[in-house]
Structures are given as C-alpha cells and as structure tokens.
C-alpha cells in the first residue's frame, strides 16, 4: 500500500508556491478582476477559488510556467461561470461596468512607460470620499495590500473584529454608491491622494517590520510599496508628498541588509554595519528630499524623509544630529499628532538629553490606549529603564514587550535582553 505521507512534501511545496505567488500577484489579480467585472466581492471570491484550485492541481500537475496567468485565467473563468448562472447579477454588473467606463478619463501617463497598473486604479477607487477614512484604509490594506486582518489591525492599533466590520462596511458602500473604477481627475486628486499614500506606506511598514512570523522583514511587501510609489511619482511628478513618501521608503529600505544578522537575528540601529547599507538607494532617496520640502509648507512624508536622511548621512549613532531630528519631530507632531510620533520623538530626546528625559516623555504617554499593544513603546521604556539602572522595572517592561512582540527575531532579542538583566552575574 502506498504511504499517503509520500505526497506530503509535494503538497507542502505546492502550497508554499501558491502562497508565495498569491502574495506577489494578489493585488494585481484582484484589480484586474474588478476592472473586468466591476464587483469587489465577486473578485475576492473567485480569486480565492483560483487559489484553492491551484492547491489541488499544482501538486499533481506541477507549478505552471506562468503561475500568475494561471490564477488569472482560472479566476476569470469562475467569474464568468457564476455570472452565467445568475442573469440578474450579470445584468447589474453590466450596468456598473458601463457607468465606470463612461466616467473614466484616460490618464496621459498610460500612453508610455509610466503606465500605472490596475492596482493604483483600485487604490483610488477605495479612497473615494464617500467612504470614511477608517473604512477605506482598512479595505485598501486588506484587499489591495494583501495584508491579513490581524496585520491591518496592527497598522491601526485596533482589534481585528473592528477591522473586519470596517471592510464589510466599505465594500457595501462602494456597491451602493456605484463608485467607478478609475483614477480621479485633477480636481479630485488632493482629497484622494493622502489615503493612497497612507496605504502604500502601511504596506511598506508591514514589510519593514512584520507584525508576525519567523522573519523580521517581509522584503516583498516593502519592495512592492516602493514600486507603487515609483509609479505614483511618474504619474504625479508635481506632488511633493509623493516625492517625500518615495524618499522616506528608499532611505529606510536602504538599511535592510544590516537590520538582521547571519541567522536572521535583529540588529539594532546603533549596532548595524553601515557599510552594508545600500548607498545607491540612499543617494536616490536623498536626491528626492529637496523636492519634498520645497515649494510650500512641508508635508508629513517630507518631514519623515528628512529625519531618515539625517540617520543615513551620519557615520554612527553618536554623531547623528539629534537636536535637528527632535526639531523635525516637533514639526511632524504639529502636522500629524500621534502617540506613535510621540514615542519616536521621546527616543530621539533620550539620545539628545539623556535617558531620564526620554523616559519622562514615555511615561507621560502611559494612559494612551493605542500604545498598550504597541511593542516599540514597551521596548523603548525597557531600554531606557535599563540604561538608568532600574533593573527590576526594566525586566517588567521587557516582559511586557515580549508578550506583544509578533516576530521571532523580536522575541529572541527581547529574551536575550531580559536574560541579561535577570542573570546573577550581571547584577
């Protein structure tokens, strides 16, 4: 009798291939299906069915030469079959598609290499002002960014159930309001662009610091966000915040190789080998900063890019211009008040004025509910308490951070710090 376990490696490999390909193709697949059929729910359902079919077929037939095309063809066939079975549904979708085609302008960039892909159309659709800011952000991150509901919840510092409700509400609103699938006109762009930039940056943030899993970084997500920002930059060269966002992501992503050791362990900024930073990417990012900061009042992405530039230009942490970084955080707080910005500013103040000054600022934020599940807050407190010699309090803060940490490299780093504090030889 054949051992059923003999097929498990092939099944495991095929499942890993499907998951990897789906992560890469998800946004592209979903956007193309919405473009074709005009319905986000239908697109999500048939995309999921295509993945399920791949999990059945690929272990038997092998991964096809063009897996993304295979998924697209399968999903499209499933959608057509479903519409054929439901004539009323098909008629409604046909009306929606005609309305979308009539409303959609053809952007000049589509004539050449600057063609924005289908995902950006869908980003702008989901950033429509008919949707609340919270609902459209959750929808874009979940459906277009490919993040899981818990990952989206982490981005917004809210429970996963809240995110799920927001997504359902947003999709219902798109359907009821018959929001067309198109890039907005010049008069609509100022209102819609910030939401798109927020989502692109949230995708990057999940790539830079994964919320869960065995790896600290998800480089595929970070690189996808940069790719989308490059398209936006070509499409909207006069928009300073687009330049700021692209600069910010390039300047941060340039450090990717130095952020982990040979075994995938976390390497903090003050311990990184700056010779491993991507100098070409840093130069590209630095060249964009002036465009982001000139021609009008600075925007939040431009200010954050300026902060990242100061980090990347410094030879080490000790010679970093911390007074200027603190001043830039003051500007950022005036533009976008946020407890997360407050945490980052407190860390900069600690390096300018000493750990006691930074800790006082962090302790003043203790009542902020959004920071209770924010790992960097607990980690920053633990580090400053340790530097002040308050070992018992530092150990408690490290335990709190360990309970919140989502990735294994973060947990391993926190366990090492906690063990060093609790070791009798270190007393």
TrEMBL record:
Q: Which residues form the DUF6596 domain?
A: 192-292
Regarding protein family, the annotation reads:
Belongs to the sigma-70 factor family. ECF subfamily.
**Name of protein:** RNA polymerase sigma-70 factor, ECF subfamily
A single GO molecular function term of this UniProt record: sigma factor activity
Task: Look up the domain of life of the source.
Answer: Bacteria
Q: Which Gene3D superfamilies match?
A: 1.10.1740.10, Winged helix-like DNA-binding domain superfamily/Winged helix DNA-binding domain
Against SUPFAM superfamilies, the record matches this protein to: Sigma2 domain of RNA polymerase sigma factors, Sigma3 and sigma4 domains of RNA polymerase sigma factors
């Amino acid at each position: 009798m054949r051992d059923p376990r003999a097929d498990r490696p092939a099944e495991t490999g095929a499942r890993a291939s499907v998951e990897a390909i789906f992560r890469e193709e998800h946004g592209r697949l979903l956007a193309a299906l919405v473009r074709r059929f005009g319905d986000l729910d239908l697109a999500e359902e048939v995309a999921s069915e295509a993945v399920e079919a791949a999990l059945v077929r690929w272990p038997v037939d092998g991964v096809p030469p063009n897996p993304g095309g295979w998924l697209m063809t399968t999903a499209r066939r499933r959608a057509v079959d479903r519409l054929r079975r439901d004539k009323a549904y098909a008629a409604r979708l046909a009306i929606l598609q005609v309305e979308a085609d009539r409303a959609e302008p053809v952007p000049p960039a589509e004539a050449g290499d600057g063609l924005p892909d289908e995902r950006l159309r869908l980003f702008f659709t989901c950033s429509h002002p008919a949707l609340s800011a919270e609902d459209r952000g959750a929808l874009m991150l979940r459906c277009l960014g490919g993040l899981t509901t818990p990952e989206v919840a982490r981005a917004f510092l809210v429970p996963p159930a809240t995110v799920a409700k927001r997504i359902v509400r947003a999709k219902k609103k798109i359907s009821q309001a018959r929001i067309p699938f198109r890039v907005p006109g010049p008069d609509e762009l100022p209102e819609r662009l910030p939401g798109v930039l927020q989502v692109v940056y949230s995708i990057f943030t999940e790539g830079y610091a994964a919320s869960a899993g065995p790896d600290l970084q998800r480089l595929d997500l970070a690189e996808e966000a940069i790719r989308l920002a490059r398209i936006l930059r070509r499409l909207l060269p006069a928009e300073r915040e687009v330049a700021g966002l692209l600069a910010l992501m390039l300047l941060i992503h340039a450090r990717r190789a130095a952020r982990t050791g040979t075994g995938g362990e976390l390497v903090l900024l003050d311990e990184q080998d700056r010779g491993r930073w991507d100098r070409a990417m840093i130069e590209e990012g630095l060249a964009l900063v002036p465009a982001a900061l000139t021609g009008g009042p600075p925007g939040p992405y431009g200010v954050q890019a300026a902060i990242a530039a100061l980090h990347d230009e410094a030879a080490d942490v000790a010679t970093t211009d911390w007074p200027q970084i603190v001043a830039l955080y003051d500007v950022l707080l005036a533009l976008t008040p946020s407890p997360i910005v407050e945490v980052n500013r407190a860390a900069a103040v600690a390096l300018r004025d000493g750990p006691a000054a930074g800790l006082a600022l962090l302790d003043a934020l203790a009542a902020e509910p959004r920071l209770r599940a924010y790992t960097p807050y607990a980690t920053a407190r633990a580090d400053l308490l340790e530097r002040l010699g308050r070992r018992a309090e530092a150990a408690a803060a490290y335990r709190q951070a360990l309970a919140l940490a989502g990735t294994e490299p973060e947990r391993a780093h926190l366990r090492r710090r906690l063990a060093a504090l609790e070791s009798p030889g270190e007393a």
